[in-house]
Amino acid sequence: MGAKRKKFIKNSIVHVILAVLAAIWVFPILWVVLTSFRAEKGSYVSTFFPKAFTLDNYIRLFTDTTILNFPKMFMNTLIIAIFSCIIAAFYTLAVSYCLSRLRFKMRKPYMNVAMILGLFPGFMSMIAVYFILKAVGLTEGNLIRVALILCYSGGAGLGFQIAKGFLDTIPTAIDEAALLDGCTRWQIFSKITMPLSKPIIIYTVLTAFMSPWLDFIFARVICRANADQYTIAIGLWRMLEKEYIDSWYTSFAAGAVLVSIPIAILFLCMQKYYVDGVSGAVKG
């Protein structure tokens, strides 16, 4: 009985701590959601729960385009995120496969250099990247989208570490058997290795989508004053500027809620494949 009581007390303490941490994590999300439905304007209120609820904050985002064109910014971000996600995911998985399966000269030095470069934040190079893009004429008009796609996907191959670690767990005997049967490396990569790597594919796709969807620094530097090319992050930031914060603060909260919807949908759609991939990997 003494051992059971100690176990019960220990489990109770753990569950209380987890409950407190969960409440701390959920509290800001709940506050943003409640603020998005708040009828009272302004950035400062005296109560946590709104006195009155309304949908006008969401409606204004799609109807009031005189100052901030939210639908346009939403579409810009969605287009950039989708194309960046596809290209970046392919780059990451391809580089990971090559470093996991192939043996070539300078392989280890490349991995060491990539790891060192990964220690530096990407925005350290944003000024150099901007002037390179400007030199080739990608900083004006609709080409800004192309420039942002290149920025988000061009260096994706350097983030190969996690995907490579997963691919290392797949037996190389499968590749050797496929080579004996006459498969090319591309066939092995696309028809054998990738179907066995669903969990890491889902992880790579999610991270590749979230990076351009939530990025502010590169988008702000490259878009500059081109308001028709703004992304959601820039639009939400402008809503908090001094001249807009009083009238757009609750709409900012509504925009923050809408930003999370595509990521949630993407995760929910891919969760089934993620679970199936994990269970398949365990069975294998």
TrEMBL record:
Membrane protein topology class: Multi-pass membrane protein
Location of the protein in the cell: Cell membrane
GO molecular function: ABC-type maltose transporter activity
Any one of the GO CC terms: plasma membrane
Main location: membrane
Domain ABC transmembrane type-1: 74-270
A Pfam family per the record: BPD_transp_1
Domain of life of the organism encoding this protein: Bacteria
Keyword Transmembrane helix in record: yes
Example GO biological process: maltodextrin transmembrane transport
Listed CDD domains: TM_PBP2 (cd06261)
TM helices/strands, residue ranges: 12-34, 78-99, 111-132, 200-222, 248-269
Keywords recorded for this protein, A-Z: Cell membrane, Membrane, Sugar transport, Transmembrane, Transmembrane helix, Transport
InterPro entries reported for this sequence: BP-dep_ABC_trans_perm (IPR050901), MetI-like (IPR000515), MetI-like_sf (IPR035906)
Record SUPFAM superfamilies: MetI-like
Membership in a protein family: Belongs to the binding-protein-dependent transport system permease family. MalFG subfamily.
Protein name: Sugar ABC transporter permease
Species for this entry: Candidatus Limivivens intestinipullorum
Taxonomic placement: Bacteria, Bacillati, Bacillota, Clostridia, Lachnospirales
